[in-house]
Design a protein that fits this description.
Layout (H helix, E strand, L loop, with lengths): L1 H13 L2 H8 L3 H15 L4 E4 L2 E4 L1 H27 L5 E7 L1 H7 L4 H7 L3 E7 L13 E4 L9 E14 L1 H7 L14 E4 L2 H9 L6 H6 L4 E3 L2 H9 L4 E5 L4 H6 L3 E3 L7 E8 L6 H20 L1
Parallel strand pairs: 3-4, 3-5, 7-8, 7-9
Antiparallel strand pairs: 1-2, 5-11, 6-9, 6-10, 6-11
Helix pairs in contact: 1-2, 1-3, 2-3
């Protein structure tokens, strides 16, 4: 019966029989058979099917809640035993924002792996909205505040957005001294990333000039890391933030311009699932916190 209950839990969390079968690496027919066997043994209906998918019955919702709590409690006990034995092991799926992680987290990933030889990581670098539960991520860092009630959220970092160009650009085209000078004769690289734009719009210090730059220009991208390379060509003005361009700012390869204008702040949030953190996830979150602490010390 435990296998049947585990299959039922997988169906609920996957949101469909097809995805549950894929995650369990069994056929969809086997998934359906196990669910029917469980319902027959209990003498109750757990799932109500419809043309839109399925919904949990009242009994199904209660069984899921009760069994998931026991599953979490067992996992927590196992993790505590491992910690007592100083064995931190596990496989983690992590989602990180491409540009921010490039300078603040990725340089230290190899050190983390060497210090934790029993932890395996899958890291997905992406700039998009994610469903941390459906996509089976253990932890993610995103640049928007999730609306899901079932995830734990903590603001971990705030980037102050600015405008940058190279000395070569100023030499060739002159330095713009106002937002109004960023006309169609200048190549401005804006950002069509919905999350960035939304965050700026909601910023308490919102300035009408903010979106004027972020959404303007003949060239729009969704990645400030690539914007940096475009700016280094000497023919464009780009958006970004100081930590992302720290090396180039320190060496004079890039210059922050129009500093009297605020583009607002871009907050990043650490999100995770479940009511407990397993030993491997605890270790990785501690590592991430240390990465951001290093960044703050460098400012």
């Amino acid at each position: 019966m435990l296998d049947d209950i585990s299959t039922f839990i997988s169906i609920v969390e996957a949101g469909s029989f097809v995805r549950a079968a894929q995650q369990l690496q069994i056929s969809q027919a086997t998934v359906s058979r196990r669910l029917r066997a469980l319902e027959d043994k209990l003498g109750i209906s757990l799932i109500v099917r419809s043309t839109q998918g399925f919904e949990l019955s009242r009994a199904g919702a209660r069984l899921y809640s009760e069994f998931k709590a026991q599953q979490n409690a067992l996992a927590k006990t196992i993790d505590e035993l491992r910690i007592e034995e100083q064995l931190v092991t596990g496989h983690l799926r992590i989602s990180l924002p491409t540009a921010m992680a490039y300078t603040m987290i990725s340089p230290y990933i190899a050190d983390f792996m060497n210090q934790n030889p029993s932890i395996d990581l899958e890291i997905y670098y992406q700039n998009c909205k994610i469903d941390i539960i459906r996509e089976k991520f253990d932890m993610a860092i995103v640049n928007y505040r999730p609306q899901q009630q079932s995830v734990l959220v903590r603001k971990i970092y705030t980037a102050s957005l600015g405008i940058y160009c190279s000395p070569k650009y100023i030499e060739m085209y002159g330095e713009p001294l106002s937002m109004e000078e960023l006309d169609e004769n200048r190549l401005c690289v804006g950002n069509f990333n919905y999350n960035v734009i939304k965050s700026v719009e909601q910023n308490h210090n919102y300035d009408p000039h903010q979106l004027m730059f972020i959404q303007r220009g003949r060239l729009l991208t969704n990645n400030s890391l690539h914007n940096k390379q475009i700016a280094l060509s000497g023919h464009a003005i780009v958006g970004g933030w100081d930590d992302l361009y720290a090396e180039e700012l320190a060496t004079g390869k890039l210059i922050r311009i129009l500093q009297d204008y605020s583009l607002g702040d871009l907050p990043f949030y650490l999100i995770r699932t479940d009511t407990h953190k397993n030993a491997a996830l605890t270790a990785f979150i501690k590592f991430v916190d240390e990465c951001f602490a290093k960044a703050k010390q460098a400012i």
